[in-house]
Amino acid sequence: MKKIVLFDIDGTILNVESSLARSIFIDAFGEMFSMDISKSIPSFHGKTDLQIIADISNLYGIDYSNEIEQIWNNIFDKFEQRISKESITILPGAAELIEEIEKANNFELGLVTGNFRKNAYLKLSLVGLDKYFPFGGFGDDCPDRNKLPLIAIERAKKSKIIDDAYPISNSVIIGDTFRDIQAAKSNSLKAVAVATGKAPLSELSCYTPYVLFEDLSDYKKVFDCLNKL
User: Do residues 10 and 114 lie in contact, with contact meaning Cβ atoms separated by under 8 Å?
Assistant: First the structure.
């Protein structure tokens, strides 16, 4: 039976220029709600975009329920204008690992990311990696990251990438935050943690992922580990 490997994006596959996302959220909320949120803004670390929007809105008493589509469009337009290939760094070994998994006949690749769908594929397309990920769970699907793996796998079933009998527990999440580890464990998936984001190795180890790597530079070792899971 095939295994599904679900990748996080930011801090796992790539890094985007520091503070770009934060500045875009600040500008988007400023334009739409005539409010300066720059002095106090919640942490984005490992959260879904929907959770970030909710956290900002709760902090400032904003009712965004009827504005969500406009918020997505506003944020995406700003990302399109400001992001470029030059503002993205592919993390060591990530592209090579993705290609190695793609070549194998016993894996399927997907995403579990806090990015909303359009923005996830925008970032990946700029570095030529979007083609590897035909399905996923995204930051505009649900604020709760723990629900995204099941959403991703249901999409894979609907697209006939896997059959309906596929057990979710035969899947792996690769990510750089404790929230990736929690999302895996809450769905009985294996968590492969990588310390290429903001969380150091020591912090990630406290959440007891199935396996922990400093980075993905030895991608063949990581691939062998995935094969043995």
Answer: yes
Q: How far apart are CA 6 and CA 110, in angstroms?
A: 5
72: tokens are: 């997505």
User: Distance of alpha carbon 11 from its chain centroid, rounded?
Assistant: 9
Question: 52-93, pLDDT tens digit by residue?
Answer: 999 999 999 999 999 999 999 999 999 999 999 999 999 999
Q: Which residues pair with 137 in a beta bridge?
A: 112
> Helix crossing, 68-82 with 20-33: angle to 10°?
140
Q: Does 18 score more than 90 pLDDT? A: no
| pLDDT tens-digit series, residues 122-148 | 999 999 999 999 999 999 999 999 999
Quote the DSSP letter at residue 170.
G
Q: In what helix (H) or strand (E) does residue 19 lie, and over which residues does it extend? A: none
Q: Do the Cβ atoms of 39 and 106 come closer than 8 Å?
A: no
Answer whether 54's CB lies under 8 Å from 63's CB. Answer: no
Cβ-contact 24, 193 below 8 angstroms: no
**Cα separation, 114 vs 153, whole angstroms:** 16
Q: Could you give the dihedral angle defined by the CA atoms of residues 193, 195, 199 and 122, in that order, rounded to the nearest 10 degrees?
A: -80
**What's the DSSP call for residue 203?**
H
Q: Tell me the pTM.
A: 0.96
